[in-house]
Amino acid sequence: MTVSTSAEGVSEDRRPRSVGIGRAHAKAILLGEHAVVYGAPALALPVPQLAVTARAHRSGRESDGPGDVSFTMAGSPPRPMATQASDGLRRLIAEFTAALGTDAAPHLDVTVDGAIPPGRGLGSSAACARAVVHALADLHGREVTESETFDLVQTAENVAHGRSSGVDARTVGASAPLLFCRGEVQELSIGCYDLLVIADSGVLGRTKDAVELLREGFQRHDGAQERFVQRATRLTEGARRALADGRPQELGARLTDYHDLLRAAGLSTRRIDALVDAALAAGSLGAKITGGGLGGCVIALTREEQAGEVIQQLHGAGAVQTWVVPLRGLAENAL
């Protein structure tokens, strides 16, 4: 089996051990959410400041079969979300056992601890799944390729979210920003060195509801899907070029334009719009909702000297927490 080159990969010592540890991190969609499942490109960024660690060990109890596992999730995620997560992770563990031929007999105890708030469009479920995959690999002393990791994470994601685009599964293990288009993935060039401020609205996003709302809108209006996808494609491609060429004002404008596209489709909320407006009023170059919609987070492209004012205004408009992602740091990991 091919050796994994992931930064979140398991220990070089491949002997089975008493406790396996795996890690992953959050992600944010820059542009392209929703449209990516219809064939449009999407730009996604790793958010290494928000990390997840999973620990797996054999409990000593006899197992009832593949997927027999006890989960402990740090924090207090909403009960339906915790149920979805554990169902997806149980499926993942069963698939891991089948794919890698590991011993299914021992009952497993898995603890997942991380700083990614669930249901905010930051890839919490995918990051947890990736961390668990690498914890299991570490526990069993096995190598997993990036392709195998992706397939296993998608197993859990499809349980949690239905059909998944794969953006989250890729980006929560990436070290650099990524371009997604029709199943192909490549690293992005970065020529902008400003800051991205992520603001948590404190309201759970509703990805499944947003997907259905968008689909219903497409069905009601002839040509709506084609217009949405074409507009999203133009904005995302413009943002990709601006990011690479070092044109932050243009990049910011494309962010705001994409927010307007999602808002027109009914995927924003008053709280989210208030956060976008506050960021722009405080001097951000652009701002938008990020992720599935109907709640979640806002991202704002901001010059370093304006970041303090932007963060203050975001909290004043209802943000419950904020994080700063320097594009310069991501650029150092990009091609």
UniProtKB/TrEMBL annotation:
Subcellular location(s) of the protein: Cytoplasm
Limits of the GHMP kinase C-terminal domain: 240-315
Xref: PROSITE patterns: GHMP_KINASES_ATP
Pfam families in the record: GHMP_kinases_C (PF08544), GHMP_kinases_N (PF00288)
Annotated segments matching region Disordered: 58-83
Metabolic or biological pathway, per its Swiss-Prot or TrEMBL entry: Isoprenoid biosynthesis; isopentenyl diphosphate biosynthesis via mevalonate pathway; isopentenyl diphosphate from (R)-mevalonate: step 1/3
Record GO cellular component, one term: cytosol
Gene Ontology BP term (one): isopentenyl diphosphate biosynthetic process, mevalonate pathway
Molecular function, one GO term: mevalonate kinase activity
EC number(s) on file: 2.7.1.36
Main location: cytoplasm
Keyword Lipid metabolism attributed: yes
PANTHER family: MEVALONATE KINASE
Family statement drawn from the similarity comment of this UniProt entry: Belongs to the GHMP kinase family. Mevalonate kinase subfamily.
Name of this chain's protein: mevalonate kinase
